[in-house]
Amino acid sequence: MRTETLEILNAERAARRATILVTDLADGTQRLVREAEIGADPLAEVLGKHLASGKSGLVEIGGRQTFLTVQVPPVRLVVVGAVHISQAMAPMVAGLDLALTVIDPRTAFASPERFPGVELVAEWPDAALGSRVPPLDRYCALAALTHDPKIDDPALKAALAAECFYVGALGSRKTHAARTARLAEAGFSPEQINRIRAPIGLAIGAVSPAEIALAVLAEIVAALRRVPRPEVA
Amino acid sequence: MLSTDTDILAAASSWRRDGRAVALATVIETWGSAPRPVGSHLVVDAEGNFLGSVSGGCVEGSVITEAIEVIEAGAPRILEFGVADETAWRAGLSCGGRIRVFVERLD
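Above: the input entities. Below: the structure tokens describing the complete assembly.
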């Protein structure tokens, strides 16, 4: 590989943009395709498939063995609400190699004593996102856990607008119906609103904060790995 | 913590900037219970210092030896390890998997 190619690849990664390195295995020749260039590329279809799965792999192109090295940005998890569930979630998130940020404007909740070693931002989500916290993007998961629409709603709106790969919100079906109405009122389409996972978390009968944290993280992993979403009963 | 493959690529870049000769090994194909997924990287310098993993430890030694040769010779190589191959069995993918590894020099 040319060192310049590697430099570009690493720079794209630092800017949180995906790339695919296309290597002809017979002679080692390579080219780098940026996420934005995939649509216009002669290999658009196969590159698009690999981008969606996030997986590198071997393909045959014109009878030549070709390796696609897929680089997708490190996944961030933004949790709104410095609550019990988030406390239980923090050590699990570390094990999953996700970069966690917890946002909660209520300083009594967002205290370093309750969240040792966690990146904690005691601000309103709409103030924090894009300033103290980098803006959300497609490689972010957002979980809104405060139960308070004043705090959760601005974060959910930002997550839907940024097309986060996962958007989840705590609350009963009734709470979610009210939330759906508010988001529709704010101009979000039914397709966008339907992307919100609510009730949040895989249906494992979770009861304790740690169990709910586990259900939410399992749902995030399933979304990340593109497991089809189960039908809502 | 150098835990992800992209961190390894960042390390490869930084080694190059330090003027070190560097080869990059990438798992391109696996069969059976191979311990590291396709796309996993290992970066090696001419002294045999390395970061990352292509097999969870089983065949790293052989990959590093070959990578040092690739650094000297320049042409990329494809290595194959697995239980079907006697030499590879000695190299030790005891888990019963097979892997193919692409090794290239950073120019």
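Note for the figure: Chain A has a mean pLDDT of 93.
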